[in-house]
Structure to design on (332 residues):
């Protein structure tokens, strides 16, 4: 009897381990990235306060669930197609697929089911949100599938992955305003900020491998990268983001200029984390363990929200800027 109980217990543990492996390739620990949708929602409220309706909370909750499922679909296909290369990585070779814990055919089914469910839920939000959710999924295909596979193309690997940032901005925005788009300046700023994060991740990973040939075997784009070019790229993305966000600030809400030093400090803090040995930037889902950095982000977010919904006429007098009165949104 004891042997039977022990056998049943072992089988249950094995089933749990298998289930855990299939869940992990969907990377639910990466869902926190969808917090970038919140800025799109806040921007919509700021530019069009009348867009708030009775059911917006339910719609936004549905939008988050849909986005998480589509994101997990992209993560699953990423895990499947990266598995051969992940075997060459000192840490990623222990992931479920390269370590043999997941069946590839079943993983493909998981990819399709997650995308189908996510896009179905997106259709319940509104048509614009649905189209953007589909674009989110298609972007994952272009990023991962050969022969296009932008993930393997130098610089385009960063730019294409960073596209998820403005897509998330739109996903949050379309919950409230499905027939207009936000200012182009903030879209580009958001995109370049995402490129800065991805470029920093590449730099941290390249430095961790510390072998150009091995890095190139693991990730094709690394064959044409170096610490120098990755650092220059990091600087380019950060300054581009700051430049376009500056345009948005001056044109639409000058009060936000008061948080510019904090935004600059955020970029500097992230660079500091990038340069740490075995940098946590390689795994953004673990950045929550950097308590000082998380406290800084929380403080920056509070100040940003406060200034976004505050009017300070004296700022316009100091900088000799006329407050913007024209509707900044593009209709379609």
């Amino acid at each position: 009897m004891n042997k039977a109980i022990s056998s049943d217990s072992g089988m249950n543990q094995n089933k749990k381990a298998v289930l855990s492996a299939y869940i992990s390739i969907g990377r639910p620990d990466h869902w926190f990235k969808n917090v970038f949708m919140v800025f799109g929602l806040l921007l919509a409220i700021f530019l069009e306060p009348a867009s708030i309706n009775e059911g917006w909370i339910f719609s936004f909750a549905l939008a988050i669930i849909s986005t998480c499922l589509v994101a997990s679909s992209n993560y699953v296909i990423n895990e499947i197609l990266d598995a051969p290369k992940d075997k060459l990585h000192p840490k990623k070779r222990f992931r479920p697929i390269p370590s043999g814990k997941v069946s590839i055919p079943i993983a493909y089914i998981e990819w399709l089911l997650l995308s189908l469910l996510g896009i179905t839920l997106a259709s319940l939000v509104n048509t614009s949100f649905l189209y953007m959710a589909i674009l989110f999924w298609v972007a994952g295909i272009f990023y991962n599938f050969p022969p296009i596979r932008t993930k393997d193309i130098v610089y385009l690997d960063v730019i294409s992955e960073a596209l998820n940032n403005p897509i998330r901005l739109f996903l949050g925005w379309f919950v409230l305003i499905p027939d207009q788009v936000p200012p182009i300046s903030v879209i580009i700023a958001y995109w370049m900020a995402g490129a800065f994060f991805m470029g920093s991740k590449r730099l941290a990973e390249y430095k961790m491998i510390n072998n150009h040939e091995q890095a190139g075997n693991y990730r094709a784009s690394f064959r044409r990268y170096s610490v120098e070019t990755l650092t220059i790229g990091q600087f380019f993305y950060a300054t581009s983001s700051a430049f376009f966000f500056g345009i948005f600030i001056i044109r639409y809400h000058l009060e936000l200029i008061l948080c510019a030093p904090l935004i600059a400090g955020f970029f500097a803090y992230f660079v500091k984390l990038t340069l740490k040995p075995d940098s946590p930037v390689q795994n953004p889902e673990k950045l929550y363990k950097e308590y000082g950095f998380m406290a800084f982000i929380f403080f920056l977010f509070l100040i940003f929200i406060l200034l976004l919904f505050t009017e300070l006429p004296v700022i316009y007098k100091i900088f000799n800027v006329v407050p913007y009165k024209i509707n900044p949104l593009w209709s379609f």
